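My current task is to audit a protein record that another person submitted. What it holds is a sequence and that sequence's fold in C-alpha cell form. Thanks in advance; the entry in question is below.
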Amino acid sequence: MASFQSHYKVPPSRNDDISHYRPFGPQWMDTAVQETLLPDSPWHQVQDKINVALAKRVEAEIYKENSGEKREALFRVLGHQYVKKYLSQYPYDPALLSPPNIPLQQRQVYEQEMEYWLDRQVEEVVKERNVNTMKKPVKK
C-alpha cells in the first residue's frame, strides 16, 4: 500500500524546504505556490495579523465563558499549533473533553458551537482588516 504522501501532494510546513514542492506541474503555477509559502511572504504577514487579532477575541471569549470544557473545545477547533503559538498562557487539559468527564455528545455540541463562533470571528476580523478573501457575494 502506498503512503499518503505518495498519493497526495502534501504542502510543506512553514519551515520545510519548499524548493522541490511541485503540486501542479506547470512551472509558473509551482513557482507561484513556492513564493506564497516563503517565510515573510505577504500572505504570511496577513495571516499573522489575522491570527493575532483572532487570539484577542478568543481570550475575551475564554474570560466570558469561564468554562474549561468550552475552552478546550475551542482549543481543539483552533488546533494545537495555533494554541501553542498564540494562547500558550492558558491551561491545556484535553482530558476535560473525554469521558467520564463529559459525554461524547456534549463534547460534539461544544465543538460545533465553537466552530460556528470561530467562523463568525474570523469573518469579522477579516472584514476589520480589509482583507479581500475573493469570495463571491452571496445573493439573497
